[in-house]
Amino acid sequence: MKFLKLVLLANICLPLTAVPASADPISIGSFVISSLLSIGAGGLLPAVSAAAIGNAVIGAAIIGASLLSSVLGEAPKINPGDFKSTFETGDSSEIRAVGRVRVGGLKAFGNTASGTRRFRLICHTKGKTTAVEEHYLGGREVTVESDGAVSSPPWARSGGSWAFIKSKIGDGTETAWDDLLTYFPVLWTAEHRVRGIAQSLVQYISPGIADDKFTKLYQQGPPDYERVQRSEPIYDPRDIGQEADDEATWAYEDNGPLCAAHILRSYPSLAVEDFDYPLIGAEATKADVLVTTKAGTEPRSRCWGMWASETPRGDVMDQVLKSIGAEIVATDDNSFSIRLIDDVRTPEITFTARHIIDLQWRSGPESVERPNICRVNYYSPERNYEMTEIDLTGIAWARNQDEIDRVGEQYMDVDLPFCPSASQAQRIARRLFALARADAGVVKTNFAGLAAWGLTVADIELPDLDVTETCAIGTPRVNDEEGTVEIPFVVWPTLTPWNPAVDEAAAPPEVPEMAYESELDTPVAPSEASVVQYADLSYETRVKFTGVDGGSIAEAVYRTYTDGEPDAYSSMTEYSGAGLDRYAYDATSTVGEKVDFKCRFFNSDGDGSYFSPLLTIDPMAIDNTAPPAPGLGGSVTGPTEGQYHVTVTATLNGMNAVSFKIQKLFLFEWTDVASSNGRPGTGLVHTEDATAGSGDREFRAIAYTSDGTESPIATYTAHIPA
């Protein structure tokens, strides 16, 4: 029977020691796969710092505080919020992005032409982007038309705009910008293509320094440009229309495992055959499953974020895997997959007493080292895409008050720069926090330990304690001279099922996109929206909203969705109705689509309100129920030369009405006297003369929907004096 020496280190901190070995475990598998596996369980138990991804060994006695600190990893922090601004530098790394991000970028070129036009070429991110959802000038969201014209106040002007924003997606087919060739023929040539970089050319036009408009537009110089974009297309093995080696077939994804595989694949030394895509696809399906959150439901694992391309691969992947709650695992054919980490783990291997030669054990870090307060930061869209701390006040799992009372506060910061969800961040942070407080050790086995290569979870029997623990394990280290294998481990914590009602804090409140206080009230969300079809078969999308005091200029915008993701906002034509009623329309069909609407107002000085909350209709559909009766009234004036003047006015009511008519009772029959297409709040007028004493005139008005459904009838009697 093998001699088993169990060293209990409940209150002893073992020093770091180096254990010589005559065989490098990299010899067991390919160098690349070995290096990737050294990242471990998404930062849960990296065999080494992920910054040293090329190495795949760990000192056998790295346990206790040293081992537990590796639970979180110590890779340099990545902050995607750093790339939100527009910056100038002579030496800048390329910016990579996945998922939805808010990005400024590098001012690659800037110059003025003719004294009135200033151009800026902004390089956003490396590689192809799939869509731009929102545009910002000086921190304020603006609407950009298909020709690049900024149509939002105060930039819009008669016949054009004071600013233009044009973009290229960065797919490598870029040619030189025509505007730069035209205005700077000496400085800019056809060879200046800036290929493979998602980029925007911003043109600022000056009204002249003596014009009051100049101060409103350029008081602090040309405003910086930022945008919210959907980043690189990503291969999804579940889509039979996509090919792993044909980027043109890929589509936007923010699925956690798919994004992680995509980032890995972009590095040298890795090919399609290194990835087990069937397994990755299966994990991607798990990541898409909707989980319950404090605010509703959301996919289990998403990935948004940015990083400098020069950042070491291990640092990036360490933080990506933590942020999505996943790990890299080897497969039988020497390839690898991305696997989500569950709170309850299933062991992949078991080590019993007959396998174990020696075991070093520590019952968690000492209380003076053990974290007792957890702080969580994530990439927050609610806070304008900045790394933001979640307020965990009152969340029991994030604080151990007994230990705080005994030894004081010991903080653990969980930074998840690729996590866009407060709910996802907290689910992951709870697990990491529990692991940082867990028991740990190193088990020395006979060569049976070689079977743990590429695995991340094991059951380890502790004979002297008469218990078998499920553990996260690091990369095995082989000592050929001794015929032993050493495996570091952390005992997997027992976690209760996640209950959002008590385990989850609310996401931070949203902040407005503007960096200054608005003088106007924020309008309420639009109240109604519709899509209609006129008799000539043309379509129109409409929205109704409410004005605010002091708001003399209205702006309403809408956006549709493509493959479940929002498109950029489009402008509408606004007009006023009665009182504070405001309407807007665009000549387009949105039948069957999900559409968001929002509005804002500007005063006469060009100062704007914040945008209203969204009105979302999903799906839009033509409504052919009977519309409300038109408003109908009139007046009789005169007489002039014996004639009275009769004016009859009908006002179209109802967002689904497309036309209306005024009829007059003549010889016991109703005869059309006025008809027109119309929009809600618009009027139709009929006038006629009447001789004194000719008797009352009877009128009525009817409205119609797209298929001709009639409204109730409105009536009006014009009394003609004798």
From TrEMBL:
Instruction: Tell me where in this chain the Tip attachment protein J domain is found.
Output: 346-444
* InterPro entries the UniProt entry points to: J_dom (IPR032876)
Keyword annotations from UniProtKB, A to Z: Signal
Which residues are the signal sequence here?
A: 1-23
Q: What name appears for this protein in its UniProt entry?
A: Tip attachment protein J domain-containing protein
Question: Where does this protein come from, organism-wise?
Answer: Mesorhizobium alhagi CCNWXJ12-2
